[in-house]
Amino acid sequence: MNKPGYKRAVIFLILISTIIRSLLALSLELGPEEAYYWTFALYPELSNFDQPPMIGWFVQLFTNNLIFGSEFFVRLASIVSGSASIWIVFIIGRRIKGDSAGFYSALLYCISFYLSIISGMLLLPEAPQTLFYLLALYFIIEGVIPKKRNCSESRILCTMALIIAGIFIGLATLSKFSSVFLWFGIFVYAVSFDRSLFKRAEFYAAFIISLIFLIPVYIWNIKNSYVGFEHLSGLVHISKGINFKTLLAGFFIPILINNPLNIVIITRALQFYKHHRNLTFGYIHLLLSLSIPVIVISITMSAFSESFIYAVSLGISPLIFIGGSYLSDMSVTQNRLITQGILKWSITLFVATIIFTVVHLYSGIFNFQNIAYHKNISQEKRDITLSRYGWRELSEEFGKIRDRDIYEGRVSRHSYIIDFNYKRAAQIDFYLARPNNTIVKTFGKRDKTRKYEWITQKLGGLKLGESMYYIESSLDKESAVSFGENFFERRELASTVYIMRAKKPVLRYRIYRFINLIEYPVTY
Q1: 315 occurs within a structural domain
Q2: In this structure, are 65 and 109 located in the same domain?
């Protein structure tokens, strides 16, 4: 295929991928993590307790400061970032080994669940992180492996490439702190393959510039007694010993979410280039330096904290360019646009997984357990899709209950919803509180309420004499009904709502009224 053909093919990939991701964004309800990061735009700050602020700023930008507040629009930042990232992947792949390699790298990107769906559709910090990470990678390559020794094509680009890379590393780190691993990879490359980098002033300038971008995080932590830094430092629990469950998760989950057949292609590519010089070793050395140390560190740290499980994917991302180059070589040998065998199976696995997941979400077809209607619904706890199912229906029912309670004088219009977990609070905020003109406050330990501790303070905290709703889900591991019994004048069951799927109850919500706070809860 000629060069314009590969460009058209990549544009077609972007179009198809964008359509698929947009349809998913339109149809799927927000998951707990997504709803939580929506609050970063609802209550913007220079930083936050557990994550930097970029995802909130992105959502504000693409929703016109939440004027357009549907699931699709709050995910639009991720969709646009994902589409732009596909083109950047093509540009990087083309830079490494021509248009064909760029096309196949973009294809591997599109059929990676992590890169295409998690980073390219869901409302998560990985969306801006991946975009800025890829932009940083492009300029790292330009700065470390120039096209021509004398920089005759673009002297300014050769001189400024590392500095520009530093800017994008700073933006990526302002999206998610794990992006700082990029510098570790660059350092490993410099020590192992190109120590002349240590003699270049722009190398140090780029590092300093990337740190400057974290000034908002420094300011926020100074104002808040460094609680964010304390949280980050407390993520690793070495004193508790190795957690083999999270260690195994750190190894297997990245393989699954990056598409296991993509990993097989990358493995084959590494074996191929070990014996063939079809790809310049400079590129291989750089990409492996940015990859292997991050993978090793992330998997090792996942033995002590589940927070590092998904950071492994940051190390897998550079390898798609080695895989794309390999597929390019194979396509030339076999004279096919898309080689037969494992790549076709990888595409099939990606498409089939998306279809089966959506079908199951709305039908429960792959859940063969019988669910009790009136007893404790426990079987659905094994079905992770239910965390993003039924919220729109529950919102309608809650709205009716609240309107009736206000009309009959049971609660005032100033009543609100209380919860004790930041993820549930965020979903309740998005689906129940905002559409029904109320708010959500939380109470509990900081590691359970996170940003909602600050949100609750902004909203005035809990006050004596207030009445509030508490919504108990059959998905909850613990109930907080006793909170209403201990600190309020009375607790009332307002209603029980069952969420149906395929004419079977899969979720039960008990909506309680906690009437008249008579004692301020110091601990709970």
Answers
A1: yes
A2: yes
Alpha-carbon gap, residue 478 to 468, rounded angstroms: 19
Question: Which residues are CB-contacts of 372 (< 8 A; sequence separation ≥ 6)?
Answer: none
Residue 442 near residue 418, CB atoms below 8 Å: yes
Mean pLDDT of 295-324: 89
Instruction: Give per-residue pLDDT as tens, 102-158.
Output: 999 999 999 999 999 999 999 999 999 999 999 999 999 999 987 665 554 556 676
Is residue 227 located within the same domain as residue 90?
Answer: yes
Same domain, 20 and 89: yes
CA-based nearest residue to 444, from 431, 433, 453: 453
CA dihedral 124, 128, 131, 133 (to 10 degrees): -100
The CA-based angle 279-280-282, given to 5 degrees, is 135
First to last CA, the chain: 66
* Domain match, 385 and 459 both: yes
The number of CA neighbours under 13 Å toward the Cβ of 478 is 8
Is 365 part of any domain? no
Residues 332 and 426 in one domain: no
User: Residue 416: which of 478, 469, 374 has the closest Cα?
Assistant: 469
Alpha helix ranges (H) inside 364-449: 391-408, 422-428, 446-449
User: What one-letter code names the amino acid at 176?
Assistant: K
How many Cβ atoms are within 10 Å of 77's Cβ, its own excluded?
24
What is the distance, to the nearest Å, from the Cα of residue 74 to the centroid of all Cα atoms in its chain?
A: 13
